[in-house]
Amino acid sequence: MVHTKMLDAYPKDLGQIDKQKLAECIAACFECAQACTACADACLAEDMVAELTTCIRTNLDCSDICVATGNMLSRRTGYDADVTRAFLEACAAACEACGDECESHGSMHAHCRICAEACRRCEEACRDLLASLG
Amino acid sequence: MVHTKMLDAYPKDLGQIDKQKLAECIAACFECAQACTACADACLAEDMVAELTTCIRTNLDCSDICVATGNMLSRRTGYDADVTRAFLEACAAACEACGDECESHGSMHAHCRICAEACRRCEEACRDLLASLG
Amino acid sequence: MVHTKMLDAYPKDLGQIDKQKLAECIAACFECAQACTACADACLAEDMVAELTTCIRTNLDCSDICVATGNMLSRRTGYDADVTRAFLEACAAACEACGDECESHGSMHAHCRICAEACRRCEEACRDLLASLG
Amino acid sequence: MVHTKMLDAYPKDLGQIDKQKLAECIAACFECAQACTACADACLAEDMVAELTTCIRTNLDCSDICVATGNMLSRRTGYDADVTRAFLEACAAACEACGDECESHGSMHAHCRICAEACRRCEEACRDLLASLG
């Protein structure tokens, strides 16, 4: 995977961070960003779109923070633990909200079910990385 | 200003949020995002770029979270207080880190001085809005 | 305005670009990005959201490309005329599509009317800057 | 892969688009976005960062347009062929510029070599999808 190769190619020491958890979190953020963008759009294509407006909004927030967090985690120069934690908390909160919302109508919409799974993976990856930061 | 007009044009009730503080925070987020992108680039153009790499990285994180937060705040449908708070905390943390970093060499670089001011305004706007959320 | 101050603070020569048109285009991109994000969300809050799904999608594309273009234009180091032109063409195309779409129901929705104006300004700013690039 | 599952779960007809090429292009955009963000940061960590400023700038442009294009392609509602083409042209141009720049010092920096490959894949995926649009 390219993101793992890029971590291996970083020219300085990566510091005390858990490289495996970091790589998983980067991958989960970009996967979840794409899933949430696609889920918002699939909701727009449903006949019952009027009942899915909260889901769409939650998807859009989640997609935005996942890209921001995936980018931040991909940067290792000038590491700041406080900023890292705050992004991870925000990303986990958005993924939790979006996962809950999508799951609540996952039985009706396959895109919500798939998106909820991506949100759960990303939330877990954020929380695992947070826990490892000490 | 367009962002204020858009809040006024929102077709449903905006809820209990302080509209003035919300509008100021949206404006500050987009202003800070642009300033941070430009400051990272201006740092790249300095002869002493090797001493500005932490500043560049901090700028990039701050720009990303400011866009994500400005977008999130611009959405009023399906409001989620927990997600809102987590984004605002992350944005304030990134603005604080970037403001501190830019300020530390603001006497040498006008772009860092201007960017530090934008970061301070955005951090304050985020914290003011956070405080008003109760 | 901060974006103008940042251009003035750029430590090297800005090259042959028309600084006034550049500054206007950067401002228009970030203004339009915010307006499109807010318009997508206001459409979600309309009772007739099912008739506004194309508008929402067009808004989201336009917001994304406006941020990307506003960021790209804010960078002056390592200028590439071909890349600059291609972004501006894409941004103008998205603004034209979104302006047309929003205008078509501007008489019913104030947010679409305001957003259409922001799209027209941004499209014009992109085309003016494109023309000045020679 | 989640992006392919999301295309399969889209509730309406995807239209005449080549689903395989579309899926490859979405994946390539998000992969390239991450690689470019990481490469910009790895360049910042090189002792010779002063010689890599054009590379960093090109990486940042490429990352931004790849996210915008990956998001746009993930949306299938209200499809607009002209907007799609303009984004793909801009993304291909940025990937070509970044691929050329990174390749030019790929022998010295593994992160540039890996990033150049991601840019080539994404440029090719954009051009293949463009060609298939007719």
From TrEMBL, chains A, B, C, D:
User: Which top-level group of life is the source organism from?
Assistant: Bacteria
InterPro entries, alphabetized: Csp_YhjQ (IPR005560), YHJQ-like (IPR044543)
Enumerate the PANTHER family for this protein: CYTOPLASMIC PROTEIN, CYTOPLASMIC PROTEIN-RELATED
- The protein's name in its UniProt record: Four-helix bundle copper-binding protein
